[in-house]
Amino acid sequence: MKMKEIREKKKDKKTNKENKRGISNLIHRNHKKIGTGLLVTSVFMCAFAFGASKFLSLYPYAITVDDQAVCYVKTEAAADKALTKIYDDYSKEKTEIKAVSSNSRIKIKKADSLKADGQKIMTPEEAADCIQGKVRETNKEKEPVEIVVVSAETKEKEYTPEPNYKKDDTMLAGEAIVKVEGKKGKQKVTTTYTTINGKITEKEEIPTEILDEGSKATIVKGTLGLPEGEDWRTYDGDPVFKDGAELVTTASNYIGKVRYVLGGQSLTSGVCCLGLVKAIYAKYGITLPLSHPGMKSSGIGVSYGNAQKGDIICYKAHVGIYVGNGKMIDATSGSGVSIRPVSTKKLVTVRRIVR
Question: What is the CATH number of the domain that holds 194?
Fold first, then answer.
């Protein structure tokens, strides 16, 4: 019995082993079938995807304005080329483009069909002209399409170095004398242009490099009659009448330098007595009449005892500018512009010009 049981057990083991081998072979065959099926499916899907992508690649590209197709080109590169041509056309000639903007109203996108709605496939140049035409049409709208292009160029330019200034308290504000001539230098200047649809709206020049410093000029500028708050170095307007002392300083500059000319009003070619007073006051923006009656009624009358610098000393047929200490500056046929004592015996009136 024992031997029989042992043989039966061995037989069962052999049978189980064969069964397992059969199942394993079956699973292996099924895996091969499944793998082959997956491979075929994968190849088919790849072929389909490749074919679809090849077919879709035949679709043209649309250039849109406000999401409406305006024209079609063959490739995305052609669309980019068309827009680049527009930016070149709209930038300042012979400058390098730095930035562009159209508020995202001009776009490039793949067409929805191979036929592109029956539209003609344009060259980049044709497309650029088409888009520009559409942009011009929007000028009639409340919010036209604006293609903003920022471009720049760098050139060598001459420049004048900032001068050295010297103050002269005997000269009028706004007057300048060049004591030492300067020499122009050279520098590189980058000019940035901003255009909107081809029209320049902004221009900015920025020096970037000094090539030749040149040399500074020396300029002497006056301070007499300088308006409050102004810088004497840069002020180039008319002096302002503040008090007679400054006016006397101005008149003193012409003593012994200007000849007498009957009826003359020029501090260069000659003056008469009326012309001298009129010309000095005119430097401070004050207009006086060129007549004795008119001069005698100008401003307000003051007594000689209260006379101040700058007041007008009036005789019957002669006038002068009071400088203090009993003296005046006037113009006579014998001495031209000179300074001399006031004669009170024939004095008619003293006039003070008030501003």
Answer: 2.20.230.10
